[in-house]
Amino acid sequence: MSGWNAHDIPDQSGRTVVVTGANSGIGYVTARELARRGARVVLACRSESRGTEAVDRVAVEVPGAEAEFAPLDLGDLDSVREFAAAYGRRYERLDLLVDNAGVMALPQGRTADGFETQFGVNHLGHFALTGLLLPALLATPGARVVSVSSFVHALANIDINDLNSERSYGRWTAYGRSKTANLLFVHELARRLAAVGSDVVAAAAHPGYAATNLMTVAPRMRGRKGSERFMEIGSRFVAQSAEAGALPTLYAATAPGVRPDSFTGPSILGLRGSPAKSRRARWTLNDRAGQRLWEESERLTGVTYDALKV
């Protein structure tokens, strides 16, 4: 995969794709480049104004692109169910689901369903979405699910007894746990897909250090000028662009031979560079942890993956 870039994306004609959080940053670039290669892309975004603006931008940058907006708030399970139901009414197949949207290092808060915000949006929302769209994925030969995690997952393992950070809360610890949850989800999803003989590929990716809105909003929301300044300096001198940061996701989503439960990130210290196999904390490959998180996620969301039960 050395030197792999957006020009290497295979033809996506005839494929239907959902990208969450596609109105800006890595999600937008992912959606745009898949549309450029011929995919029909659904930009699933919380904000209607930003989502429709993103669709308009795609239309300008990629004349003839098939792109549409659909409302999705991952912090509200009713919205997740409404999105999945609307998708099912319109489409019978789903070639690619990119679980990209996320929030980072926020002050402590709760989703509409009462979950800690980062765990609720970054993990539980995507867990529910993927489960509800599973029939369409299973009905599509060669389908893939790509979860966007982070190198920051290495900061913290999940605490299965305190998934919603009720005992204590640290904004970066909570973020790391949510990104660990993304990887454990992919690990367990890949195992369950293999167990039923499905050819759906579940893989993970991370952008390294990319200069996107996500990298600057978190410190600003916290109100810490020093943190904001640090992020600004890092984004200016260390971070790569959103275009480069999207490459690991695009590789995991489209490159031939991507293996289930793989983790793709930038090649240079996991921070920048072309897509490469990425290091991951050992706890993200723990079968028992993956199973327990899965069981708790089904209980908390009410979404069960019945087709993957053996």
UniProtKB/TrEMBL annotation:
Gene3D superfamilies: NAD(P)-binding Rossmann-like Domain
Pfam families in the cross-refs: adh_short
Swiss-Prot/TrEMBL keywords: Oxidoreductase
Keyword check for Oxidoreductase: yes
The keyword Ribonucleoprotein is assigned to this record: no
Organism superkingdom: Bacteria
PANTHER family xref list: PHOSPHATIDYLINOSITOL-GLYCAN BIOSYNTHESIS CLASS F PROTEIN (PTHR43157:SF31), PHOSPHATIDYLINOSITOL-GLYCAN BIOSYNTHESIS CLASS F PROTEIN-RELATED (PTHR43157)
Protein known as: Oxidoreductase
